[in-house]
Amino acid sequence: MTDTPQPRYDFRQEPDGTWTVFDTWVKPPREGRFLIGAKQDKAVELTRRMNALQPLPNLLNP
Question: Backbone phi, then psi, for 17, in 5-degree steps?
Fold first, then answer.
């Protein structure tokens, strides 16, 4: 079994219906938020772009 690392950036829907993008490497996640109040399409696109800029760690060559 191989553990797949979690992408660095993720998004979630807030209780008010807006979306937040956050850095999963910052704990607690609330401290790693950098886009708050976005529409879903913007949050998804920003998350995709940020993860493309910050590739996952290379597990074969640490």
Answer: 95, -10
